[in-house]
């Protein structure tokens, strides 16, 4: 790969590229956790991101829970807990 | 024989196959000296041209594909370039050659036809080579489902296979056989971010190509306007959910998003999202910024817009 043409890529998972500083990153995580909780509450799933340890905690209605590293894995886990695909166009 | 005519190289290939990445490196490495680059995008919001900026002259044609609904605009642009070239008295200032990066939905053969059947353009432009970029990871899926993907291969003089490292040697070998069946005369070579790489051996066994009806599910474009101050958290939350659920329908996503960490190029091919590139800051936001283009089959602009707003409102 040529490292001279093109522009630098943002480090980390693509969904986390929007935060420039550690402070921004933490605030993003809190806000993202709250938004996910609001979005997934109607299907019985709660989400928590305390910001202290890496990962997002996903909890299902029956007590099933998992810690996921990023949003990409989170949606796979949500489908598994629900037993069906979560459809963002039908919420 | 070009006989003083302007040489045109067509760079085609399906949505997300890696046309811009390949061309960007060729331009950087001096592969097309004194070229005037024409970038065509089917969507109304152009993104790719920002990545090809440099020493070359550039024309951006957005909002219509040069082989079909945008062909008039394309012809007009070519005539304008030819006209300017004819009037240039100093030969060292003249455009040396043309490079067209087509939209991912264009049939290069239709573009060649268009030039060769045009009474004026045929006297000014000679089609030098049609290069078609094929994504080793999703190329086979595209060939099995999209008639235009097959047409693109048939039109190629030269095939460039990208993302070989992601696809693996067996899959790439099978794809090579498929490409050879569609375009036996086209030379195949491998490329990683524009630099040449070795190709795995072509599979010996023939593969069956499904016959596709010309009217299989149409690919359409939708655009999501994110406003002057986009909500990065809401956008990524929503987009990651959408790509997870609809990655088989959404073939391509791209857009430049102004975030607190700078102008980020967000793009996806099906549900694969590479790390966003951080683009140079501009003094004022470009009119194309903060609009996300989604290209795929069976997409409803309304449903997409509504679901994004719903996610944004949870914040």
Considering the chains and any ligands shown, give keywords for the structure.
heterodimer; A: 91 residues; alpha+beta; 3-stranded antiparallel β-sheet; 2 helices; 3 strands; globular; B: 315 residues; alpha/beta; Rossmann fold; Hypothetical Protein Yjia, Chain: A,domain 2; 8-stranded mixed β-sheet; 10 helices; 13 strands
* Relative strand content of chain B: 25-35%
List the secondary-structure elements of chain B in sequence, H or E: EHEEHEHHEHHEHHEEEHEEEEH
Q: What is the string of helix and strand elements of chain A? A: HEEEH
**Number of helical segments with 4 or more residues of chain A:** 2
Q: Report the count of strand segments of chain A.
A: 3
DSSP helical segment count of chain B: 10
Q: State the helicity of chain B in percent bands.
A: 25-40%
**What is the gyration radius of chain B calculated from CA atoms?**
20 Å
- CATH class wording of the largest domain in chain B: Alpha Beta
Mean residue pLDDT of chain B: 91
């Amino acid at each position: 790969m040529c490292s001279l043409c093109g522009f630098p890529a943002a480090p980390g998972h693509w969904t986390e590229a929007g935060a420039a500083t550690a402070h921004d990153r933490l605030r993003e995580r809190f806000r993202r956790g709250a938004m996910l909780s609001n979005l997934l509450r109607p299907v019985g799933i709660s989400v928590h991101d305390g910001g202290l340890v890496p990962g997002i905690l996903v909890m299902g209605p029956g007590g099933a829970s998992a810690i996921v590293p990023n949003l990409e894995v989170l949606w796979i886990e949500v489908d598994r807990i629900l037993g069906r695909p979560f459809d963002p166009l039908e919420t | 024989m070009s006989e003083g005519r302007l040489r045109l190289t067509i760079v085609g290939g399906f949505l997300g196959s890696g046309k811009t990445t390949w061309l960007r490196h060729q331009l950087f490495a001096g592969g097309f000296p004194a070229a005037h680059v024409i970038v065509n995008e089917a969507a109304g919001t152009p993104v790719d041209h920002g990545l090809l900026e440099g020493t070359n002259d550039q024309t951006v044609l957005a909002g219509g594909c040069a082989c079909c609904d945008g062909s008039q605009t394309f012809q007009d642009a070519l005539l304008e370039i030819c006209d300017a070239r004819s009037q240039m008295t100093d030969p060292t200032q003249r455009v040396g050659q043309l490079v067209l990066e087509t939209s991912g939905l264009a049939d290069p053969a239709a573009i060649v036809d268009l030039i060769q059947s045009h009474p004026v353009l045929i006297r000014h432009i000679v089609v030098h080579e049609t290069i078609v970029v094929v994504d080793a990871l999703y190329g086979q899926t595209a060939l099995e489902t999209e008639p235009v993907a097959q047409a693109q291969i048939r039109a190629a003089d030269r095939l460039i296979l990208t993302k070989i490292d992601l696809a693996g040697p067996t899959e790439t070998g099978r794809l090579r056989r498929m490409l050879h069946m569609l375009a036996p005369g086209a030379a195949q070579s491998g490329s990683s971010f524009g630099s040449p790489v070795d190709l795995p051996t072509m599979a010996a066994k023939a593969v069956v190509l499904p016959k596709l009806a010309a009217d299989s599910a149409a690919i359409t474009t939708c655009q999501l306007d994110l406003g002057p101050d986009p909500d990065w958290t809401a956008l990524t939350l929503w987009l990651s959910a959408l790509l997870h659920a609809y990655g088989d329908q959404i073939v391509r996503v791209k857009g430049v998003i102004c975030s607190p960490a700078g102008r980020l190029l967000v793009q996806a091919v099906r549900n694969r999202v590479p790390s966003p590139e951080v683009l140079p800051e501009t003094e004022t936001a470009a009119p194309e910024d903060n609009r996300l283009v989604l290209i795929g089959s069976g997409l409803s602009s309304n449903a997409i817009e509504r679901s994004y707003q719903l996610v944004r409102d949870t914040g």
